[in-house]
Amino acid sequence: MNGQHRATNVDVTAVRRAGVDTDPEAAAALVTWSTLAEPGDAVAGALIAALGAVRALGAVRSEARGRVGAVARACLDVGGVADVELAAFEGSVRGALGRWSPRLDGAESAATGAVARAAAVGAVLVLPGDPEWPDGMADLGHHAPVVLWSRGRGTADVLAHPTLGVVGSRANTVAGAEAAAEVTSAAADAGCTIVSGGAYGIDAVAHRVAISAGVPTVAVLAGGIDQLYPTGHVELLGNVARQGMLLAESPPGTRPTRWRFLARNRLIAALADAVVVVEAAARSGALNTAHHAGQLGRPVFAVPGAFSSPASVGCHRLVADGVAQLVVGPSDPARAARGVHGDGGIEPTPALAAPAEDPEVLRVVDALGRRPIGVTEIARRSGLSTVATADALALAELQGLVRAESDGWLRVGGTGSAGRGARTGRRERT
Predict the structure, then answer these.
(1) Could you tell me which residues are beta bridge partners of residue 126?
(2) Which of 252, 223, 221 is nearest to 237 (CA)?
(3) Type and span of the H or E element at 167
(4) Beta carbons within 8 Å of 349's beta carbon, 6+ residues apart
(5) CA angle 59, 61, 65 (to 5 degrees)
(6) What is the pLDDT along the chain (430 residues), one digit of tens a residue?
(7) In 3-state terms, what secondary structure has residue 325?
(8) Which of 322, 274, 319 is nearest to 296 (CA)?
(9) CA distance 142 to 429
(10) How far apart are CA 211 and CA 218, in angstroms?
């Protein structure tokens, strides 16, 4: 068949890792598909899943040459689409052909050029079904990449460890950089691979800390594997490739664009066992990564900041909307990543002190009686300063042990100690 024959003219031998089985026709067709469809194109993914890359490419070429219904008939033949779905399916295919047609005539040449550019920088072509194909890509369904290109250590080696995605603002604050460094350092200590996007700001901090700590790190690129972007990070990305891996789905030679930055975020989410956002403005690509991770069922964390800081608005919104958990300590994200990966050996998060274990809370609660008492009198009875008393009362109120009345503070726990009242949940009549 003409479509199949043309696809086999692309030779991928130079970019395949030695010892990996390769079906030349399928490999050539997949590379050709990667030049036709933009990242995450679900129609392309559905056709390849139903027909295989070679037959799907042939059907699309037949349809483009005027053989109306070629794709639909092919999918009906293999049960890839039901009769009742046919009309909607054909509409989706027509829309996709509108996207792909301008590239069809030059697809083989583009694929050949992509292979040549990859070979020039020592990149490796990774295909679905390869031992090095990341397991997490399956969670993306039809939005999974058609192929991946890598530079550096083997995918299977780098991703054998628990993986933590660390993302955030490009215009980070000093506090944000410090938080990213602490979270990444804790993850490195826990044996995690760090995944990020190679951008300025929080991404760069995460990669640099991982490199300094000697743990693998992965930078997922928005353009081709030969396009080290931003240009100010050429040296950093080179270091990432030496210690870990660069990964891209767009064909080599593809320049990064805003759309491709957003599309690559789903790969960061899919590669990670957990994702943490360290600073994000109200409109931030990091939020896009967090939402992808949430949709994929990955644990998502957000580092809190000052409520008045524009750099923390996105993080706070993630927590408020229930998308992310609050990072209480720098080890929290790494602990979650190891849990998802199935690794143990990291200490559990220490619990907050119970009321009976906080001496100042215990003292102010014990100073209360059956009638409301003011702060000054509570301070006198407990032997604390008025400032310490006010702080302890605020904490006790959060724990449900006291409540503020118009004329003072009142205990709401049982008649026993603060700790016993907190455990039993008994309320005292007033």
Answers:
(1) 148
(2) 221
(3) strand 163-168
(4) 328, 329, 331, 332, 335
(5) 115
(6) 343 344 457 898 899 988 788 888 999 999 999 999 999 999 999 999 999 999 999 999 988 888 767 888 888 778 777 776 777 878 888 889 999 999 999 999 999 999 999 999 999 999 999 999 999 999 999 999 999 999 999 888 899 999 999 999 998 999 999 999 999 999 999 999 999 999 999 999 999 999 999 999 999 999 999 999 999 999 999 999 999 999 999 999 999 998 899 999 999 999 999 999 999 998 888 999 999 999 999 999 999 998 889 999 999 999 999 999 999 999 999 999 999 988 654 555 555 555 445 788 888 888 898 789 999 999 988 888 888 888 888 778 777 788 888 889 988 754 333 333 333 333 333 2
(7) strand
(8) 274
(9) 61
(10) 10
Return d(Cα 148, Cα 152) in angstroms, integer.
Answer: 13
Q: Are 355 and 401 in contact (CB under 8 A)?
A: yes
Distance CA 140, CA 22 (A): 24
| Unique residue bearing structure tokens 């503070």 | 409
The position carrying tokens 């006010």 is 390
Q: Determine the distance from the C-alpha atom of residue 276 to the mean position of all C-alpha atoms in its chain, rounded to a whole number.
A: 8
Residue 193, φ and ψ in degrees, nearest 5: -85, 135
CA distance 418 to 354: 9
HEC-encoded secondary structure of 214-269: CCCEEEECCCCCCCCCCHHHHHHHHHHHHHCEEEECCCCCCCCCHHHHHHHHHHHH
CA–CA separation, 117 vs 337, rounded Å? 35
**Residue 247: φ, ψ to 5°:** -135, 140
What are the residues whose beta carbons fall under 8 Å from the beta carbon of 189, sequence distance 6 or more?
Answer: 213, 334
| C-alpha–C-alpha distance, residues 2 and 16, integer Å | 25
Beta-strand ranges (E) seen in 102-248 are 124-126, 148-152, 163-168, 193-196, 217-220, 245-248
Q: Which two tokens stand for residue 391?
A: 């702080």
Rg (CA), the chain: 28
Sign of CA dihedral 99, 102, 107, 109: negative
| Closest of 323, 327, 392 to residue 359, by C-alpha | 392
CA-CA distance, 274 to 391, in Å (whole number)? 35
Which phi and psi angles does 383 have, rounded to 5°? 80, 20
